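User: I would dearly like some help making sense of a protein record. This is the protein in question:
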Amino acid sequence: MATDVQAQRPVRLVPGEGPILPDVVLSEFTKFRTVRSTYATLVAAFVAAAALGPVQCALYASRYPNVDAHEKAKFSALGLSLNGIQLAQLAIGVLGVLLITSEYTTGLIRATFGAVPQRRTVMAAKALVFAAAVVIVGEIACFIAFFASQAFLSSKHLETHIGDPGVLRAVIGGGLYLAVLGLLALGLGTVIRYSAGAIATLLGMLFVLPGIVGALPQAWQNTISQYLPSNAGQQIFAVHIKPFTLQPWAGLGVFCIYAAVALFAGAILLKRRDA
């Protein structure tokens, strides 16, 4: 009986001060890996990022003799290889939102804050665990996509190589983009607290905003579009830098600012609002 009572009590990992970050990270990692939806979403993102590009490259190589000159001129071996990131970002974004909103839906967030009163420590731990998982999955998927795609394209001598200018940065950048996107989603989920609203906001930022800006006069488009979240972030896995776009690392930096603002706002509201 005594053992059962002790097991039900929140563990004070640091006397007088409560759990410290490494302990909370371990706790959040346990929650993260024991939820089945985590594996399903990460697998979906991995398959999309790793498989879509090679499939498209294989199809392109098979019909290459019949491809017209205009399409050949637009072809990018690297861009087609990493095309699966466009689909993988949806899964990562949804998972980032659900990482926090699902706890509000089930009421688990109250138990979490009961065990760890330092709410911002909880949020930091969630961000660290999630970012690490997405970086690992994203980087492995992007490297698989790249090398598998080049294997298909090499039959037509269309491949690019990892040592070519900008290629390694782009392949690594694909995983970094997904991680920052996930943190942006986590921040939005913390601010809004409702899954549907946070996911809709994220999709609006990624896909609706570019359409709205596209309706503006061309001069305005050239100035504004490069600073939109998706446009800025995706520069990190682009090799050919187009006019009126940011440089790769500058673009990722702007994308990180969006994520940081969302996380900062979430941290403030997390402290001020009731669970």
